[in-house]
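Quick one, tokens below. Sequence please?
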């Protein structure tokens, strides 16, 4: 950090933005809530900016902030071996997904153009003028997660984490001291050692414990998905350690590492640090 580093927050309040703001203040960083009209006001022209907030708002301000946004590739989950996913996952277009004749979990991999959900068949998928048949989607088998955890990953290591749901219901609990902490960290260590090169240096990875279709005893740890750390709810994770990941995931373009250029959302304007 430098004395000029600051955290710029999107105007929409969230509990995570409050936690990260408090953490940033504790380490001597300035925090600025950006105006709702989409400008950056007093943040304009300042160096050392970092960002936390939604992608739509980010698109309007990151150029002025000179921030590089890191995000996992849309197809990362589909490249993983079955031992890490526990289910079939494939990339397709929305037009192809409309031809599904079976229930499936369908989601847009990064954009939030329609709700990620289980659809009884392809005819149930949303329609609208903005939903072109060419929109990329991710299609996966329907599974039951007995517990799901969010992990904040920095340079291939888990910095902190939180359980965020059990059987689809919100159930936040710190990873540190959790009864599954050892199993979670063991699975994550193996995953990151084998497949971590396919992720940015700062990222959020969600993993979970698969249950049988009848909701019986848990049977396998698997990856749920990977997400942008700069737009993720930290739930019960340690906000100080989560902030370390957030700052790297959306920090000054001048500090962008060469390995992260391919994960930069605004890559055409990004140049790796020398």
């Amino acid at each position: 950090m430098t004395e000029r580093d600051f955290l710029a927050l999107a105007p929409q309040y969230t509990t995570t933005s409050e936690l990260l703001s408090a953490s940033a203040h504790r380490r001597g960083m300035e925090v600025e809530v950006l105006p709702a009209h989409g400008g950056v006001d007093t943040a304009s022209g300042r160096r050392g900016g970092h960002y936390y907030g939604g992608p739509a708002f980010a698109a309007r301000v990151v150029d002025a902030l000179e921030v590089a946004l890191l995000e996992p590739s849309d197809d990362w989950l589909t490249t993983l071996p079955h031992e890490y996913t526990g289910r079939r996952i494939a990339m397709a277009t929305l037009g192809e997904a409309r031809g599904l004749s079976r229930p499936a979990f369908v989601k847009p991999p990064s954009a939030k153009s329609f709700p990620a959900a289980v659809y009884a068949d392809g005819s149930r998928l949303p329609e609208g003028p903005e939903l072109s048949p060419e929109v990329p989607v991710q299609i996966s088998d329907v599974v039951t997660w007995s517990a799901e955890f969010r992990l904040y990953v920095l340079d291939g290591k888990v910095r902190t984490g939180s359980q965020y749901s059990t059987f689809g219901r919100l159930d936040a609990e710190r990873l540190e001291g959790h009864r599954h902490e050892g199993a979670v960290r063991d699975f994550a260590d193996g995953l990151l050692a084998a497949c971590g090169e396919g992720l940015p240096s700062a990222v959020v990875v969600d993993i979970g414990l698969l249950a049988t279709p009848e909701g019986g005893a848990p049977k396998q740890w698997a990856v749920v998905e990977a997400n942008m750390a700069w737009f993720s709810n930290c739930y019960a994770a340690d906000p100080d350690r989560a902030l370390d990941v957030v700052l790297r995931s959306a920090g000054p373009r001048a500090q962008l590492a060469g390995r992260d250029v391919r994960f930069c959302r605004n890559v055409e304007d990004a140049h790796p640090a020398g």
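DSSP finds seven helices and 14 strands in the chain. Residues 37 and 199 are 33 Å apart (CA to CA).
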